[in-house]
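User: Hey, quick favor. My workstation is busy. Could you predict this chain's structure for me?
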Amino acid sequence: MTSGVARIAMVAGEASGDLLASHLIQALRAKIARAEFFGIGGPRMTGQGFDAWFPLEKLAVRGYVEVLRHYREISGIRRELKRRLLAAPPDVFIGVDAPDFNLALEGTLKRRGVPAIHYVSPSIWAWRGRRIHEIGRSVSRVLALFPFEPALYEKEGIPVTYVGHPLADALPLDDTHEAARELLGIDRQQPVFALLPGSRQAELRYMAETFIETAELIHRRLPEALFLAPMATRETRLLFEAALHRRPTREPPIRLLFGHAHEAMAASDAVLVASGTATLEAALLKRPMVIAYKMAALSYRLMRRMGYLPYVGLPNILAGRFVVPEFIQDKATPENLAGALLGFMDDDARRADIVRVFREIHSRLRQGAAEKAAEAVLAALPARAEKDAVPVSA
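Assistant: No problem, here it is.
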């Protein structure tokens, strides 16, 4: 450690990782008087004083085909990052999700004596666990978000800490439906659907038109319905607007929002959402949802062969059953999606069951995640770094 400053390197590869990492940085700053955070991150991390050497958008690529298209650029970023980290090793490295990028980097740093923590367990429970031995070689500790994950690592002798999910800490247990409608100026009786086609540009290219066509079909059945479409970035908003302009009609009243995804979901009667962290957010907000996802055909064929769980959405994985419907690839048609969303509108018993299950999930995940993760990071700091990184309260 240099000049009594704890040097903490981090890499987050997408918007959800940016959010998790920002909470962790905030918790660590409350415990360490002097600390530097640097590596790859997004706007939430930089808002906490993180020095982003590269923007996380460079890594926000999903699917085998899409990764191959960007392979040269991503490999170049990893080589440069590794060069800089080996030239001036940090006191600890934290890879936030993005296992395809982070695990090899973590392994290199671990062999050089740098504690390597992986925050967010790779989905070994969904993809037959083939990577668990690679994870064990690469990391010093895994910080797990979900309660069923630690046993998988403990069985293989891999250090693991269950920290829960920061979103479960941040979002209220109680329903905020009426408050969100009031905030957005929406009548309590108006049917409202939230459209979340993804936070990555590649997702919008595959999903935007399908989501818009679904809204058109619902609008024909419910002419008074309002559709809220929160966009994570300027780029995704432009892609969604372009998809809107390609449609022959402009009938569905779609209100584009910049951010405000939580408010849009909370205000809705039902959510149409691309598979990913947003499905967990919708569950924590206790909203009925339909999960949809499309990707390149080759990527889908490869992933379908690797996977073994019958579901891909986090709410269903955490519940251990199909609480909400999923439509993947060719099944994600506007007709299927519209029918499933409309099916929620008049089924009070089903909606009540969904709320009950999601509230149970919320309670299990509410563990004070940022605090627990920060404690695990402090414990991993070398003895000298621990001595010099004087707690704020001291």
